[in-house]
């Protein structure tokens, strides 16, 4: 792809917590420009006065204007991602789709098929891949120094209670949220897939300990599986933890050593004990996205915008492409269908 030789023009759909981060990161990037914001709520409710661009209440209204736009960033509730992605692609726009790309494999496939048909790019958002411990462990695994992977355990124990699942919110609704693995823990499933590849022979059990009045789905699960490339893994997760997040960690037991990455959003290497290897000093990880009482995943969205601008100017390849976005949706769908 050749360079655009001008700023990349972005619109953002969904101006909540994360949509505002997209707007801010687009505004801060010297090679990009925000041209419109879209949200079903009225503008005064959204706290977006810092962005003096045209505002629309629907994607259709926006796409019917002659405002020039290259990329639409979709940061609406999960259940709208696929439908809005299809509309933007149909209008020949590139898209950045917040996680998850869709709530089922069939919809994610439709988005990819449409993107191929209209020859536009789909960027999935998995910004935890940019955190220093993620970059480091990816390199370590690809170097082969760990040898064969025996066991991988992901523990994701977070607090999400009535302060988060408000009755008016899309969170907790099956059709808009999709479930705990889609909304809370898809980043960790993405990291696991990125490092170790696909999983098979999935077994598990789910429970709803304290979310009966708050969500339409389980709050906890123990899931175990084999990696297609060898070794076995487990994903233990819960949003039923009292008061505050407890941990997000990944423990790797391999032929030549063991590694544990922990912290609230896998931001710290806690153990690295690997044969003939000395752990380098890593840069600090950006703090988590702030949700009032909650911490979410790392605040790395500026890398996502940099990647879009780099790709559209022909300098880079996509960090998280649509096929990977689809794969995470498909893995979660398979876990939920056991
Ligand atoms: N990458 C990450 O780390 C990360 C973190 C949190 C959330 N997310 C994702 O970002 C998306 C938004 O999450 P959030 O926490 O910002 O939610 P939010 O509730 O704070 O914001 C969602 C916004 O979308 C608007 N909206 C609802 N329906 C719409 C529609 N049909 N068209 C346009 N706008 C609509 C709402 O009015 C609201 O302003 C979700 O898909 C979520 O999974 C990603």
Automatic annotation (TrEMBL):
Domain Gfo/Idh/MocA-like oxidoreductase N-terminal, first and last residues per copy: 9-122
A Pfam family this chain is assigned to: GFO_IDH_MocA
SUPFAM superfamilies: Glyceraldehyde-3-phosphate dehydrogenase-like, C-terminal domain, NAD(P)-binding Rossmann-fold domains
Protein's recorded name: Oxidoreductase
Protein species of origin: Parapedobacter defluvii
Domain GFO/IDH/MocA-like oxidoreductase: 137-259
Gene3D superfamilies xrefs: Dihydrodipicolinate Reductase, domain 2, NAD(P)-binding Rossmann-like Domain
């Amino acid at each position: 792809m050749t360079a655009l030789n001008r700023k990349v023009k972005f619109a953002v759909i969904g101006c909540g917590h994360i949509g505002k981060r997209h707007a801010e990161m687009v505004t801060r990037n010297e090679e990009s420009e925000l041209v419109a914001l879209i949200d079903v709520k009225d503008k005064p409710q959204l706290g977006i006065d810092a962005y003096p661009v045209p505002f629309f209440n629907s994607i259709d209204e926006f796409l019917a204007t002659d405002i020039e736009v290259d990329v639409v960033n979709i940061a609406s509730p999960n259940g709208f991602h696929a439908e809005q992605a299809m509309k933007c692609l149909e209008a020949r726009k590139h898209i950045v789709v917040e996680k998850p790309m869709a709530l089922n494999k069939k919809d994610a496939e439709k988005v990819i098929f449409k993107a191929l048909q209209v020859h536009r790019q789909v960027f999935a958002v998995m910004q935890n891949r940019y955190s220093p411990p993620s970059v480091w462990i990816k390199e370590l695994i690809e170097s082969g120094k760990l040898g064969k992977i025996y066991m991988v355990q992901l523990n994701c124990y977070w607090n999400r209670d009535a302060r988060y699942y408000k009755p008016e919110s899309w969170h907790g609704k099956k059709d808009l949220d999709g479930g705990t693995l889609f909304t809370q823990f898809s980043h960790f499933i993405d990291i696991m897939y990125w490092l170790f590849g696909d999983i098979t022979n999935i077994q598990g059990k789910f429970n709803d300990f304290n979310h009966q009045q708050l969500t339409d789905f389980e709050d906890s699960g123990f899931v175990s599986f084999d990696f297609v490339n060898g070794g076995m893994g487990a994903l233990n997760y819960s949003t039923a933890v009292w008061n505050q997040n407890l941990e997000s960690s990944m423990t790797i037991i391999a032929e030549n050593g063991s590694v544990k990455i922990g912290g609230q959003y896998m931001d710290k290497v806690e153990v690295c004990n690997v044969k003939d290897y000395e752990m380098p000093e890593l840069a600090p990880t950006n703090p988590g996205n702030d949700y009032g009482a909650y911490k979410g995943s790392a605040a790395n969205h500026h890398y996502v915008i940099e990647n879009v601008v780099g790709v559209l100017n022909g300098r880079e390849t996509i960090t998280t492409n649509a096929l990977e976005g689809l794969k995470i949706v498909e893995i979660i769908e398979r876990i939920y269908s056991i």
